[in-house]
């Protein structure tokens, strides 16, 4: 076994379950419909206004009385900069202070279908992307040994069923098959071994399985509540790590190999309400708890590696459980147009002392505006705009070991915002 411990690799691989600063705290994506985006996803477990109810709370599908599908898309523009105030580069390398952009643009699609079976039972299916984001630093920036490019994607296929218990109460359940896919890069310092800089590239994917449960009830003539639980999902990941520009003396230690890991993505519990204040106005609220404490330590194992290949060191993250709170309103302008607005506050799961350049996550605020247009009895279109503003996030991070010539310290602050434009078509057939 090689004496080297490649501490920079787990930091990069960590992004297999951590990415970005644009949407919900941590690396979750709430953008699974445009009708909810317009109210900052307030009331999401109780409103049941279209087929996307199949995802947010299967019990709320009971409000859908005709076959319907929803097809939606979201454009995300993350504008973020990392301002480096101090840097200590590995031996033989340089790094400068100053500002570096790490934002990027992305697209999030979603599809939902609800088919009533009879007066009490509905079936549904949702295809969504509940986790992921792309961030991209300049390849020559001061923190390149801790992270350069991070591209995370997920897909969740979620069939479900609802049962209307009586005129006021419904229950629902579903199962999920979820795939996580990631491509991550960072620089490696080969100066101590007669080389210059190389590039570490990690690609991995895996499937995991879970379930979701829901209940919805009319507690007063004007107020409806919903409770929706989504289980944690353990992803069995398999992938590869590759290195470029490896000098001969450390060719074995930095050799390419396959990788495996297990990562448990968090469970969540949403409590929502919808209140009809008068014929024109609806008030929506939501409180969502997320079990981010599943992200405590990340451990990665080489598979089929060459004898003498360096081991990968586990990393501690110690994330904490968090809450997200949202309030919104819907105004019925006329028989064809609804106007929407909402505010949300999302608490970050990342402790200050564990914040990394790959995930400079902080608490964030969301302002949302939207509109819904009923084209005819079968066709509805929603559009929405969200402005997401995280608090400035300070980072003081040292990664890598002195023994391998990889130690890199970055001190600075991440700041930025995101714009999310959403649109969807809902059609009854």
From TrEMBL:
Family: Belongs to the OmpP1/FadL family.
UniProt keyword annotations, A-Z: Cell outer membrane, Membrane, Signal, Transmembrane, Transmembrane beta strand
Signal peptide: 1-24
Record lineage: Bacteria, Pseudomonadati, Pseudomonadota, Betaproteobacteria, Burkholderiales
Subcellular location field: Cell outer membrane
Its membrane topology: Multi-pass membrane protein
InterPro entries assigned to the protein according to its UniProt record, in alphabetical order: OMPP1/FadL/TodX
Source organism (scientific name): Limnobacter humi
Main location: membrane
Keyword Transmembrane: yes
Pfam families linked: Toluene_X (PF03349)
Protein name: Outer membrane protein transport protein
Ion transport as UniProt keyword: no
